Amino acid sequence: MGELRSKAEHTEAIRTRGRICVVVNTRSRRGRRRYPEVVRLLRAAGFDPIRLFPVVDPKRLRATLEEALAAGPDLLVVGGGDGTLSAAVKHVAHRDVALGVLPLGTTNNFVRSLGVPLDLPGAIRVLRTGKVADIDLGVAGDREFANLASFGVSVEVAGTVSNTVKRLLGRVAYPLTALTVLPGHRPFRAFLTVDGRRHELLTHQLNIANGRFHGGWQVARDISIDNGRLVAYQLGSGKRLRLVVETLLRGAGGRWRSLAGGPFVVGREMHLETDPPMAADIDGEVRLMTPITIRTVPNGLRVMVPEGFVDS
What we know:
By secondary structure, this protein is an alpha+beta fold. The chain has helices spanning about 5-15, 30-45, 60-70, 80-90, 110-115, 120-130, 155-160, 165-170, 175-180, 240-255; strands at about 20-25, 50-55, 75-80, 100-105, 130-140, 145, 150, 190-195, 195-205, 205-210, 215, 215-220, 230-235, 265, 270-275, 280, 285-290, 290-305.
């Protein structure tokens, strides 16, 4: 979508011109309550937004993002959960505009992967003092995504966990809901082809990560959202008890393990087949089915990150 400025030029433009548009999903976990504070803190940081868009109807989110981008900002600031930010990623990708993120969701996986503080003052400080970086963009089928593609019990959990439970319990709502769903869930067989090698797994859950976090907890210390690689890993095996134990351990300690009985599977492109065919949860949006090819596009998205973020 046209020629992109250098990242240094882009950073300087944001710091000096301050041309920003702000889109906040006021239906997100904290969006409605924190929206006035977002506006106040942005203005206190020296920003005078071109346009402000409090989104009340989620069905209007995509149209609102396009309207915001049409105003020609250097920085599009978006507040909401991972679903909101994933929608923004699709609109900002490959454009000469950076995405600034505000942590207004339940798990804030994408925000965490960027190293952005989880408090609003800290996140807005990054918008003023941080830098523009280009990170990897995930593509599942023909759909771009920021953080994670998942298959199995998590798809059922996503359709089961209520907004009320998420508001009350935060990120713990997901593993607790998984424990109620799991007794009726049947394991599936997955065939994952990466770099010409075929991996066969029996599991209740398979994740393919672009970012570093899932459910608000770190997948692994050495995973990066800017290394040109996807990482696939399963939760437990085909045994429900093992998955229950691992879910509880992660919920309590925030530690994710590798593929059961083996290492992570890492690659730029992965082709997944499942028996039976399964729905894919792509950053919270369930629309695609297996078989599916998932790949990464290095440097496909510009974001505002802390100065210390390692931009490869």
